[in-house]
Design goal:
The chain has a single domain, classed as Beta Barrel (Small Protein B, Chain: A), CATH 2.40.280.10. It is 34% helix and 33% strand. The longest helix is centred in the C-terminal third of the chain and has 25 residues. The chain is globular, with a radius of gyration of 19 Å.
Length: 166
């Protein structure tokens, strides 16, 4: 009997850890122009650490080097249950796996002034680790304040509407 996609998601392994590591700071600091899903070249202990929620992508970024895309500055903590010989280096550069056409598209965006590559999330899709990269433009300080103000106004409106419904 075949399981449906919904059943597979419902029966995800229960490790108590996070299945998705997000970079909420990126949405505050940047305008995200485009999102691209990339594969990650990882070793076994890195996969186990990500499944346990032991990754931080807040300070990370992506860079094009020698025709390849690399994830830099992302910290994946060492897996506590692995032996010392099998451990990985927490801050090593990790290769991102994308198609050549996508790489050319990213190169054309990054050549433009003011655009950068920011990791938005690391998650699992079909058992494979994926990284969502955003092509981003930096926000200015007044843009950040304006975004906070509009978010607070929407929150107040929603509260008032819920209060009036009662």
């Amino acid at each position: 009997m075949a399981r449906t996609k919904a059943n597979k998601q419902a029966s995800a392994p229960s490790g108590g850890g996070a299945r998705r590591v997000s970079n909420r700071k990126a949405f505050h600091d940047y305008y995200i122009v485009e999102k691209i899903e990339c594969g990650l070249a990882l070793v076994g202990t890195e996969i186990k650490s990500i499944r346990a929620g032991l990754a931080k992508i807040d300070e990370g970024y992506a860079r094009l080097q020698d025709g390849e895309l690399w994830l830099i500055g992302v910290s994946i903590a060492q897996y506590p249950n692995a032996s010392g010989l099998l451990q990985h280096e927490p801050l090593r550069n990790r290769k991102l796996l994308i198609h050549r056409r996508q790489l050319e598209q990213i190169q054309s965006h990054v050549r433009q002034k003011g655009k950068t590559l920011v990791p938005l999330a690391i998650y699992f899709k079909g058992g494979w680790a994926k990284c969502e990269i955003g092509i981003a433009e930096g926000k200015r300080e007044f843009d950040k304040r304006d975004a906070l103000r509009t978010r607070d106004q929407k929150r107040e409106i929603t509260r008032e509407m819920n209060r009036r419904k009662r």
